[in-house]
């Protein structure tokens, strides 16, 4: 006989839910969104380290140094320092927002129900989902190119397909990504654990290939592309903000992964071991390889897929492309599909299960890349480049998510004091449908950030958007929650 009321039990600081009919019959619950059982939390610190190695070693990370030197006016040395500092900084919201996922086994959308409301959580979820789908499309484009080059190295006739071959590669890689995520979290853990050492080997191999053709002294001596005599502070801070924005999205939905961690210690150490150094080293590799590309292949090439495609040996191209396919797959599945899959389920858990949500994620990602795919097929002509989308819209859009990170941290640690009603997060009678404190705390910093675009005096607010947004969002949310609690406290005392 099914129990009517849900029960919550605690084992070594980890909480799990024995769902009764009050939760099982709720429209806010399905099996995929349910809290993980303690026995399902099998990821130790090395699995989480592998997760971050797998996500960090990807084509966009490789190009970060070039983005900072070309678009943000930093020297090579300054760019690499900005990448290292940014990833140390982003560890703070990553580890803090991972805490409730580990303790209660809940994914990101369910955690947001505490700060934005049971229904209101869908708004920040869909904002987060859109940027993830954009990244999914871009990474799939790189993966599709790698498949095209792989097939071209194996079958001579494939090269003649040109852009059509790249589109076919895109669709094959697109389907492969969806298949991995549909199979569940254990498939992702297996993929990340397998790919991490392979990806490190790829990095070492590329470095050995490039080092004889580049002088690190000359590379570090290249002057920055900014006005002579200009202060480095504002340029460095803007680049730092952009680099924090690179993982700003993951700092929100990290509970989607930390819900599988064995303990808080495992999730903290895994993130510390896996993220900052991997990002720094692979971005540094990108800088070295781009500098060496002129001597290696005769032209400057800023992405590894195209660079390796210039190698004359079909065997080495095939091997390298196979490894890049694995690298891009490990990044894409974890970083860009898991979150929107959970976010879309949150809209109507009884209607949208994991498989439907994965397919919806794939469809949105496909539509966002439709323009680029039509260009490759020769059906349209356009000057808009994938690099423009990557360096401008996505990094800028990510920085607007800062207030959500601040609100989540303040809500869990200061307002709720690390205590959540686990069953209540899946019902309609504990938390409000819409928590307007969360929306005001999110809306004010975003509005100020957008308004600062047209003001020279307040341009710093946009330049440092993630920092100003997260801090202001957290402060406003705390103030609103304290003010709202005051009347009830006075009434109770009387």
UniProtKB/TrEMBL annotation:
<feature type="transmembrane region" description="Helical">
    <location>
        <begin position="461"/>
        <end position="481"/>
    </location>
</feature>
<feature type="transmembrane region" description="Helical">
    <location>
        <begin position="232"/>
        <end position="252"/>
    </location>
</feature>
<feature type="transmembrane region" description="Helical">
    <location>
        <begin position="357"/>
        <end position="374"/>
    </location>
</feature>
<keyword id="KW-1133">Transmembrane helix</keyword>
<keyword id="KW-0812">Transmembrane</keyword>
<dbReference type="GO" id="GO:0005886">
    <property type="term" value="C:plasma membrane"/>
</dbReference>
<feature type="transmembrane region" description="Helical">
    <location>
        <begin position="163"/>
        <end position="182"/>
    </location>
</feature>
<feature type="transmembrane region" description="Helical">
    <location>
        <begin position="394"/>
        <end position="415"/>
    </location>
</feature>
<feature type="transmembrane region" description="Helical">
    <location>
        <begin position="436"/>
        <end position="455"/>
    </location>
</feature>
<feature type="transmembrane region" description="Helical">
    <location>
        <begin position="194"/>
        <end position="212"/>
    </location>
</feature>
<keyword id="KW-0472">Membrane</keyword>
<protein>
    <submittedName>
        <fullName>Nitrate reductase</fullName>
    </submittedName>
</protein>
<feature type="transmembrane region" description="Helical">
    <location>
        <begin position="49"/>
        <end position="73"/>
    </location>
</feature>
<dbReference type="Pfam" id="PF02133">
    <property type="entry name" value="Transp_cyt_pur"/>
</dbReference>
<feature type="transmembrane region" description="Helical">
    <location>
        <begin position="314"/>
        <end position="337"/>
    </location>
</feature>
<feature type="transmembrane region" description="Helical">
    <location>
        <begin position="79"/>
        <end position="99"/>
    </location>
</feature>
<dbReference type="GO" id="GO:0015205">
    <property type="term" value="F:nucleobase transmembrane transporter activity"/>
</dbReference>
<feature type="transmembrane region" description="Helical">
    <location>
        <begin position="272"/>
        <end position="294"/>
    </location>
</feature>
<comment type="similarity">
    <text>Belongs to the purine-cytosine permease (2.A.39) family.</text>
</comment>
<dbReference type="InterPro" id="IPR045225">
    <property type="entry name" value="Uracil/uridine/allantoin_perm"/>
</dbReference>
<dbReference type="InterPro" id="IPR001248">
    <property type="entry name" value="Pur-cyt_permease"/>
</dbReference>
<feature type="transmembrane region" description="Helical">
    <location>
        <begin position="129"/>
        <end position="151"/>
    </location>
</feature>
